[in-house]
C-alpha cells in the first residue's frame, strides 16, 4: 500500500514538474514575471517628442521619402474602444481618429483628408500598411483596419463590425482617396495588415478566433485560435493560416514573398512564404521570449520588433493608468549569413531597453537606416518619440 501511495505521489509530482517545465516556465519567461528591466541603447538628449501625435498604434515608414505614416486616435478613447482588447464601449470612442504623416527633415505633421469616404460612422483606426504602387512610383496604397460599431446591436454582445479600408494616395498630396471597404466573415477580429503593391490584395491577422466577448487581455495564451487571412478586393477573402497563438503584427518584405507574423504572448515570429496561389507555407519560427508587438523592416533588410519586457506593466497601462511608466525593448533580426554565422539562421539582437523614462509603452517601432532615426509609438502613448541612434 505504501508503495502504491508513493508511486501515485511520484506520478502526480512528476506530472506537475512536466507541466511546469512545458507550460508554466516558458509562459512566465515570455511575460517577464522575474525579469529585471535594463536601460541601454537610448540617449535622452538624442530623442525628440512630438505630442501633437497621440495614440498612434502603428507607424509605417515609407521609402525613399522617409515620410512616417501614423494611424492615430486619443489615449482615452483607445481605452473605451479597442475591440481586440475587449474594450467595447462604442459611445466613448473617438470621432476624430486620423491618418497623419510626419516628415523628420522638417518636423512637419500633416493630417490626411479622406476623400470619397462615404460612411455613416467616423473611422476607428488600428493596424495599417502603406505600400508604394507597383505601377506608378508617385502613388501609394494605404490599407487600414477600421473597427466600426455594429449598427443597432450591442458590441459587448456581438463584437465590433470590423472592416478593411483601401485608399490610394499620391506621394505629394495630403489626401487619401477611398477605393473600397472590404467586409467579410473571415475578417473576425483584425489587428494588423500587410498590403500588396497592386492595390488589390492584402494579408491580415485576426488576434482572436471569434468576435465574441473575451474575458481577459491575456486570455488563454496556450490556445491557438488566431489566424491569417488573405483578401483580394475583386475576388473575396479566405483564411490562409490558422491555429496560430496570439497573432498580432504582420509584415511583408517589399523585395520578395516572405511574410512575418508576430505572436505577442507566444514571444515569437513566424516566417511564411507566399505561394503563387496566395496561400502561405510555414518556413521558420524565430523565438524572442518576450511579449511582442508590431513589426517593421529597415532599408538594410533587418526586421525590427517592439517588445514589452514585463507584461504586467502593459496590462496596467492598457487597463487602468495611461501614464504608467511601461518598459520598452526593441529587437533587430537579420539573416545570419556569412563567415561569423554559427549555424543559427537568424541573428536576434536586443538593440535597446528602457524602463519607461525615455520612452514608454511603445507598440510599434520603425527604423530609418538612411537617417539613423528610430521612431516609437504606442496604442495609448501621449507622443511620438524619435531618437537618433
Ligand atoms: C502616376 O500617378 C500620378 C499621380 O496620381 C499621375 O499624375 C501620373 O499621371 C501617373 N503616371 C502614369 C504613367 O500613370
Ligand atoms: C526576403 O527579404 C527579406 C527582407 O528584405 C530578407 O531578410 C529575406 O532573407 C528574404 N527572403 C528570401 C527567401 O529571399
Ligand atoms: C499587442 C499589441 O498591442 N499589438 C499591436 C500591434 O499592432 C496592431 C496593429 O497596429 C495593434 O492592434 C496591436 O495592438
How would you describe this structure to a colleague?
It comes from Lentinula guzmanii. The protein is mainly beta and 389 residues long. The protein has 4 helices and 27 strands. It has helices at 2-31, 75-80, 155-158, 311-319; strands at residues 47-50, 59-62, 67-72, 81-82, 87-88, 98-103, 108-111, 113-115, 125-132, 139-148, 161-170, 175-182, 190-195, 201-206, 226-232, 236-244, 247-252, 258-263, 268-274, 280-287, 291-297, 303-308, 328-335, 346-354, 364-368, 373-377, 384-388. A 5-stranded mixed β-sheet has the order 8-12-11-10-9, with no helix packed on it. Strands 1-27-26-25 form a 4-stranded antiparallel β-sheet, with no helix packed on it. 44% of the residues are buried. The structure holds 2-acetamido-2-deoxy-beta-D-glucopyranose (3 copies). One 2-acetamido-2-deoxy-beta-D-glucopyranose binds next to loops.
Shape: globular
Distance between the termini: 68 Å
Low-confidence runs of at least 5 consecutive residues? none
> Would you report the number of β strands?
27
Ligands, ions, cofactors: 2-acetamido-2-deoxy-beta-D-glucopyranose
Strand order of the largest sheet: 8-12-11-10-9
Percent of residues in helices: 10-25%
